[in-house]
Structure formats: C-alpha cells, structure tokens
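RECORD TYPE: inverse folding
INPUT: structure tokens
STRUCTURE:
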C-alpha cells in the first residue's frame, strides 16, 4: 500500500476512534466502537465475525472462514480510561504525533491492526490471521481475553499485542500481580473514651508499616528510577485505605486497605501470598482479589530482528513491571509479541502516539506475519 495513503488512513481511523468515549462507565459507547470495527471488517471477504459477551463486556473475534485456530492473532482492547468531561475525547496532530485520550493505549494501535488485517486479507485471501478486540483490559481482562481463551477456547500460533514495550523494545517477561484486600476488625467506641474500643485503623497502619519496611529491604542496591533494567524486584503499593466510618468522633468497627503487589520470578503467587500473610500479622485478614504469576512471553527472535531492521536501530527484549493480557495466552503456552509504536502520557489527556512509528509498526507486523504464516 502506498505510504502516504496508509498514513492518512491510520490518522483518520485513530482520530475517529478517539472521539468515541469507550470507557467502563459507558457500555453504549463501547458498543458504538465495536460497530465501527464491524463496519470496517464486514467488507473484508472470507472472514467471519463473532461477537461474544461476558458480564456486560463485549468482544469481537474475526477469523478467516473455516479456520478456528489462526497462525497469527492480532489482539487489542478498545476500552480507555475515564476523563472528567466528554470534551476531553478529541484529538489533534502536533509534532508528528496524534494526541488525545486513548491514542497510545491503544486506539492508534487498533487502527494499525485493523488496516493491516484488511490489507492482508485483501492481498492474500484466506491467510491464517485472526483478530480479537476486547473491552475490559483496563479493568483486568477477566471478561475479555481471559474469557476468550478460557471459555470460548480461542487459540492461535502466536498473538500480537501492541500494548507494551516500544518499537525496538519487545517485552520478554512481565512481573506477577497480586491485588490484595487487608482487613482489620476492631471494636467501635466513642473516640473520647478510646480505652473502651479497639481501633482497627491502628492495627492496619502497624501492619502496613511492617509490609512497607519488608519491601524496602528488597530494593536492590543497583536500583535507579531512570534505569528500567534495574526495576526487576518485588514492589508493593497501597492503593486504597478506608473505613465505613462517617463520624469524626467514633472509632470504627473495621478498616481495610488494598495493595498492589508486583513480583518477578523466582517469587510466585504462593510464595508472595505466604510472605504477605506473615507480614500482615494475625490480626489482619488477607484476601486475594487478583492473582497472576509472572509471565514469560516466549518472544520470537525473528520478530526482534525484523523490528530492528524496520526501525533502523538495534532491537532488544526487555522485562516489564506492568502486566498485560499476555498472561492469559501464557497460561495456554501461546507465545506473545508485545511491542508497540512510540507512545507517551498514557492515561493522561495528552496521551500521544507518534505517526512515523505507527507506519513502522505496521511494516514490522506485515513482514513478520508473511514470514510466519508461510
Ligand atoms: Zn492498554
């Protein structure tokens, strides 16, 4: 395809997608976004479209006719994070980038996948390439990729997910994740007579301080915030703390905190959970909300080479602190290629994606797919 035309199409499609407020709170907008994909995909010959739904979250799977397990599966999510007002959901082009909510996570990438999917099926009818689009990645992927893989039985030779790494940094592994609820129970009392009660907030704070100290111990000496290669150690963030209390002069009955814990191997869900239960102490109950093992993506070296060739600079594999939908494929032993164009300010209102790198990413995937399916 001619480059200028492709460039225009990618910009147009990305900007159309940014306009749709496809957030968690707006299922009808997510549906509208799916409709846009369907409109573009329905005209592709030799492809069947299926819609799936779980807990109110839709997914779209496009497969070549007669093929249930494509060699390559393009995979992306159309949900974006919420912004305070609707007029945030527009875009502009500045300094060679498309700027707008969701441009880099991942509507720009969806535009690329859609264009590439159409291009491949037009030029190579029947090519073993499928596409899956989900709508709940920002809230965990349980009703999206996890559902498609575990319950619908979606399989493929390799999955391409442009939602991590960068153009020449292909994610090789991701830390495991634990989301935990810590619950302390006490005895309510009037705050003027604290000796009559047991304050669960104090229990919880003591427990959290112990956890904080233990995780601080695990920071390696070579750690530097500027050096991503040194970030490969366990971390723990307190992301919420609350009580049902609404009165300033009352000691509450209970208190809870939410923790987000990330860990690389050799730590496992089991070993981390054991450690956190010990650290939390006997007066604090630990409940698991989300648990995922560290993920190895089994990156294909050929994809790394092609990325370097197209980008014109050495490409490498990297380890990532964040998790992605890749972990659900990992559970089925399916390799995942996780890289993307240059993006930034993710989840901010000035989120951006660089246009030249969108074209490069398109070309990387195009070359790789044609080699892979051969
Ligand atoms: Zn994303």
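DESIGNED SEQUENCE:
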């Amino acid at each position: 395809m001619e480059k200028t035309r492709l460039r225009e199409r990618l910009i147009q499609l990305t900007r159309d997608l940014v306009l749709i407020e496809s957030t968690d709170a707006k299922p009808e907008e997510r549906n509208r976004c799916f409709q846009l994909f369907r409109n573009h995909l329905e005209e592709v010959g030799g492809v069947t479209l299926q819609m799936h739904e779980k807990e109110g979250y839709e997914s779209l799977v496009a497969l070549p006719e007669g093929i249930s397990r494509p060699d390559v599966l393009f995979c992306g999510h159309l949900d974006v994070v919420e912004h305070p007002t609707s007029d945030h959901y527009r875009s502009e082009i500045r300094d060679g980038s498309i700027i707008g909510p969701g441009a880099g996570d991942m509507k720009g990438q969806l535009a690329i996948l859609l264009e590439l999917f159409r291009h491949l099926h037009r030029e190579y009818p029947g090519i073993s390439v499928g596409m899956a689009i989900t709508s709940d990645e920002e809230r965990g992927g349980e009703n999206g990729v996890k559902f498609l893989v575990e319950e619908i039985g979606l399989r493929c030779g390799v999955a391409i997910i442009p939602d991590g790494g960068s153009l020449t940094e292909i994610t090789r592994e991701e830390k495991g994740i634990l989301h935990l609820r810590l619950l302390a129970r006490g005895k309510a009392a009037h705050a003027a007579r604290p000796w009559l009660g047991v304050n669960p907030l104090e229990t919880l704070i003591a427990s959290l301080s112990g956890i904080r100290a233990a995780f601080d111990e695990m920071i390696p000496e070579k750690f530097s915030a500027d050096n991503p290669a040194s970030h490969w150690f366990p971390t723990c963030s307190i992301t919420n703390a609350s009580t049902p209390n609404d009165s300033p002069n009352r000691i509450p009955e209970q208190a809870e905190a939410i923790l987000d814990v990330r860990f690389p191997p050799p730590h496992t869900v089991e070993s981390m959970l054991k450690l956190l239960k010990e650290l939390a102490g006997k007066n604090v109950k630990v409940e698991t909300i989300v648990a995922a093992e560290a993920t190895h993506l089994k990156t294909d070296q050929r994809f790394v080479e092609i990325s370097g060739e197209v980008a014109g600079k050495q490409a490498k594999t990297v380890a990532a602190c964040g998790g992605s939908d890749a972990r659900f494929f990992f559970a089925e032993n399916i390799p995942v290629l996780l890289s993307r164009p240059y993006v930034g300010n993710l989840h901010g209102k000035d989120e951006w994606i660089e246009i030249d790198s969108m074209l490069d990413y398109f070309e990387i995937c195009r070359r790789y797919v044609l080699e892979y399916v051969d």
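NOTES: The CA atoms of residues 61 and 249 lie 55 Å apart.
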